[in-house]
Design a protein that fits this description.
Polyamine Oxidase, Chain A, domain 2, six-stranded mixed sheet, 22 strands, about 25% strand, FAD/NAD-bd_sf, Amino_oxidase
């Protein structure tokens, strides 16, 4: 079978769906092929014993600029987290919050025993600068690693090791904080400007909402792609002839289809999901380990933010670990007993989700974060490896790649 269209999009993750939305809006004939039987790529939600289990701990930031182009965020019915963190230090839980969003927590944050008062003031100044300065200026600053940028901001070893490394390691999936300072600046900008939440129906509600306006008969699921060449996409169902091909799959798969692409290193992440009859905390807030044990990146009671994540009478806890080696569940449970300061004996281990290729590494130099999407000969690429490693990066790269396709089609 030989089909024809103007543009073939390979991959139905966030980048591919964003590209399809732009092409569809422009009235250009297109078709999307996806190897899996669902849309969403790395953003997915399963149901286990009545609990919503995302494919790894993920959240949505309302400050992502591309969201507003693609959906009405109110339709996701977000449940929000507290704008801050809890830090376990010895026998204390120290609460640090964004005073702009949690004014009553400001005095407690100023007095919290994580780093010094000067540390907290310097970090507040850093975050404020990222939130208020133009993005172009942030991305024009000299680029270093995230850790170097934090130290150059005058932050002490104490606040980096007790707060920022455990927190940011969960964001970047990079405990070494070797991620670019430009990525750090944009992350701090989004955290300062937006709110963090979970859709009531799980993170899979995001790709569903992006895909909703697209005609179902143009989305070919369960259709693996064997080969991509200029003007042709070869699938198990037959070949599709086209004017342009936009590859929007994960970096390893993209490199297999497009040998001209450089190899992208991927970070690994594992999330342990537990169900409890009582929540170990009543607040929807992230808990990190300030005791420098470097095992758990973070843990959080998801159902405190979105009650729909757990059935009545139960509470869902997600605990994430950075790195390729996943410790056994009993080891994690023992850490959770220490972190929450209460017994976990009556918790049920629902599942462990290990993602070997969770997020692209983004060491310097990343420049202005926007890597080329046009490869020549009618071939294009999109994904969070072409922009910032994030949901925002995936959506933006797809939108940008579709724009490059439109420019070439109009010129040709």
């Amino acid at each position: 079978m030989l089909a024809e269209t103007d543009v073939v999009i390979v991959g139905g993750g966030l980048a591919g769906l964003a590209a399809a939305r732009r092409l569809h809006r422009a009235g250009v004939p297109w078709r999307l092929v996806e190897a899996e039987g669902r849309l969403g790529g790395r953003v997915a939600t399963d149901v286990v014993d009545g609990h919503l289990i995302d494919r790894g701990f993920q959240v949505l930031n309302t400050a992502y600029p591309r969201l507003g182009t693609l959906l009405d965020i109110d339709q996701l019915n977000l449940g929000y987290f507290t704008s801050g963190v809890l830090v376990r230090k010895g026998d204390k839980l120290l609460r640090l919050v964004n005073p702009l969003r949690e004014p009553t927590g400001g005095p407690g944050t100023a007095l919290a025993g994580v780093g010094s008062l000067l540390d907290r003031l310097r970090f507040a100044a850093l975050a404020t600068g990222c939130a208020t300065l133009p993005a172009s200026r942030l991305l024009a600053a000299p680029e270093t690693s995230a850790e170097t940028a934090l130290r150059r901001a005058g932050l002490s070893d104490a606040i980096i090791e007790e707060l920022l490394r455990p927190f940011l390691s969960g964001v970047f999936i990079d405990r070494e904080l070797s991620t670019s300072s430009h990525v750090l600046a944009m992350v701090l900008r989004s955290f300062a400007r937006g709110r963090i939440g979970l859709p009531a129906e799980g993170m899979a509600a995001l790709p569903r909402a992006v895909a909703a306006p697209l005609p179902a008969d143009l989305l070919d699921l369960d259709t693996p792609v064997a080969e991509v060449t200029p003007g042709r996409v070869r699938t198990q169902a037959g070949d599709i002839r086209c004017r342009a091909v936009l590859v929007a799959v994960d970096p390893p798969a993209a490199a297999a289809l497009l040998p001209a692409l450089a190899t992208v290193r991927m970070h690994s992440y594992t999330t342990y999901y537990h169900s409890a009859p009582e929540p170990p905390l009543t607040e929807p807030i992230l808990l990190v380990d300030g005791d420098r044990r470097e095992l758990v990146a973070n843990t959080v009671v998801l159902s405190n933010a979105a009650a729909t994540y757990a059935p009545a009478g139960r509470h869902l806890i997600a605990t994430s670990v950075v790195g390729p080696t996943a410790p056994p569940e009993p080891t994690i449970r023992a850490e959770l007993t220490r972190l929450y300061g209460r017994s976990t004996a009556d918790w049920t281990h629902l599942t462990t989700v290990a993602i070997p290729e969770a997020l692209p590494a983004a060491p310097p130099p990343q420049g202005r974060l926007r890597k080329p999407v046009a490869l020549g000969e009618g071939l294009f690429v999109a994904g969070d490896h072409r922009d910032s490693p994030s949901i925002q990066g995936a959506l933006t790269s797809g939108w940008r790649a579709a724009g490059a396709v439109l420019d070439e089609l109009r010129a040709g």
